[in-house]
Design goal:
single chain, 331 residues, five-stranded mixed β-sheet, 8 helices, globular
Length: 331
């Protein structure tokens, strides 16, 4: 089942559900995906059971809503400060050739000659997929911002004036709510663009935290339930109506050095991230970047990311913010 949200003229939200490739239908009496998810989490029911009890109403043309700019992020919080955008890196194996070369390099190189990135990648290879009941190695982790940084599908991803780059990262994002008792519940997974500043990151790995404090977009639809083991998608940049760059990307545990469960554990082990009523959008990494192929993005470029079984593709144009004057005042 796929879930999305459409904005109405009166400010209300229509929650839409459908099977992949099927017709969208409005969920009767649903105020938002968040409201449905919290009702399920706090009542001990499945999300499907809550939706089935409410029933489905009129058909909704999602493509038309997308074209009209009415699609919202597939989950939103009434208070944007209670939606958290976070992620992990160095989690994907990449192509078979890259995998083989990385295995060989990390196995043969002396520990003192490895970069911190390669050391962390090797740690994931060795203990990112623990046996049931065991705890695996913790991954790289980063913070992107709260719900004010979440950009709706179709809307502009805006790079700050001080940024050195604004590039796409095609990733799977896990979507979670925290029940009233502090228990995390996964709704499902969505395609995401973990928009980042790769030039800043490349200057020094310790600038990673700065490079990730950028907007992100996810959706347009959430695939409810567990993620497939092997996810196949595409990432492209369109400039002036023509494809500038395009590559396939893969995700899912068959293509990762960590399990989703291990990555989830190391996020939600912190009580800070189990505040009742909060939403978490956690992005799980990628092995495919246009930046790695020497692409420099420009204002007006269109990012398009999609994956089989995850509904409509995610599209966002790139914008560059004007420089701001920041004045620190003394009280």
């Amino acid at each position: 089942m796929l879930m999305s949200q459409v904005a109405n003229a009166d400010g209300s939200i229509t929650v839409v559900v459908r099977e992949d490739g099927g017709e969208g239908r409005a969920v009767k009496g649903a105020d938002s995906v968040y409201a449905l998810a919290m009702e399920a989490a706090n009542s001990g029911q499945s999300l499907k059971a809550v939706i089935d009890a409410k029933g489905l109403g009129e058909a909704v043309d999602l493509e038309a809503a997308y074209a009209a700019g009415r699609l919202l992020s597939p989950i939103t919080h009434p208070d944007a400060a209670h939606l958290h955008l976070t992620g992990t890196g160095l989690t994907h194996l990449g192509s078979a050739a890259t995998r083989d070369s990385m295995h060989k390099k990390t196995a043969e190189a002396a520990e003192e000659t490895l970069t911190d990135s390669m050391k962390m990648f090797r740690m994931g290879l060795e203990n990112g997929k623990p046996k049931p009941g065991e705890k695996g190695v913790q991954p790289e982790w980063f913070y992107k911002g709260n719900g004010t940084q979440a950009v709706a599908p179709g809307s502009r991803l805006t790079s700050p004036s001080f940024a050195l780059d604004g590039g796409e990262e095609p990733e799977m994002a896990g979507i979670y709510v925290i029940a009233a008792d502090g228990a995390p519940f996964r709704i499902g997974f969505a395609v995401s663009n973990e928009f980042s500043d790769h030039v800043t990151e490349r200057i020094n790995y310790l600038y990673l935290a700065h490079s990730k404090l950028r907007q992100a977009s996810f959706g347009p639809e959430i695939r409810v339930g567990a993620a497939p083991d092997d996810i196949r998608g595409f990432s492209r940049i369109v400039r002036g109506g023509k494809v500038l760059w395009e590559k396939p990307f893969v995700s899912g545990e068959a293509n990762m050095s960590h399990t989703f469960a291990n990555l989830e554990y190391h996020h939600f082990k912190y009580g800070l991230f189990r505040a009742p009523g909060d939403i978490h959008v956690h992005m799980f990494g990628t092995a495919t970047l246009s930046f790695g192929d020497g692409i420099r993005t420009e204002a007006g470029d269109m990012f398009e990311i999609g994956a089989d079984g995850f509904g409509l593709p995610l599209r966002n144009p790139l914008a560059i913010a004007r420089e701001e004057e920041i004045e620190i005042r003394q009280l």
